[in-house]
Amino acid sequence: MKNDENEPKEYFERNILQVILLLGLGLVLDWFSVQLLLDVNPWGTALAIPGLTFTLQGLWLVTNPYAVVYDDRFEIKQNFLYNKEFYYLDAKRVESQKQGSLLVVYNDEEKERLPLFGMRASYKEKFREVLSAKIATSLASRDF
Q1: Are the C-beta atoms of residues 94 and 85 closer than 8 Å to each other?
Q2: pTM across the whole model
Q3: In 10 A of CB 66, how many CB atoms?
Q4: Is residue 75 one of the residues assigned to a domain?
């Protein structure tokens, strides 16, 4: 039986131009490293490490959306190193900033910046609206 509570409700995609540039950079570095290794040059190994890292990062970006919204939480998957979950129960409101990022204000008035670099520009406002609606629903159903 399927558990509908853990099913994602909405996805917010990445900026495709950034993904293509990252994949292109990785593939160019990979090509140069192969050419150097065919000439038996040890710099090919040194160049292969960042090339493979960029290629794997680009493939990971292709297969994962930038943000996933669930009923009780949302996840931001910016890159390999930044995967974070935020729960609506902890949040009080969402505020917009000039730099194209969002601020999540928690119940104790602590603020945390959500990076939106890499999300499609057309999705940023919709993402803020969805988060505001989910947090408002969470605020209405709280007992404290």
Answers
A1: no
A2: 0.82
A3: 21
A4: yes
- In the chain, the number of structural domains is 2
The residues near 135 (Cβ < 8 Å, ≥ 6 apart) are 88, 91, 92, 93, 94
Residue with tokens 């949302």: 74
Structure tokens at 113: 């910046």
Q: 82-125: per-residue pLDDT in tens?
A: 889 999 888 999 998 877 788 999 989 899 998 888 899 889 99
List, in order, residues 6 or more apart from 7 with CB less than 8 Å away. 70
Q: Show the domain range for 24.
A: 14-63
Judge whether 47 lies within some domain: yes
Mark whether 91 and 122 lie in a shared domain. yes
Q: Are residues 47 and 91 in the same domain?
A: no
What's the residue count for the chain?
Answer: 144
E strands, 15-132, where?
A: 67-69, 73-77, 83-87, 91-96, 102-106, 111-114
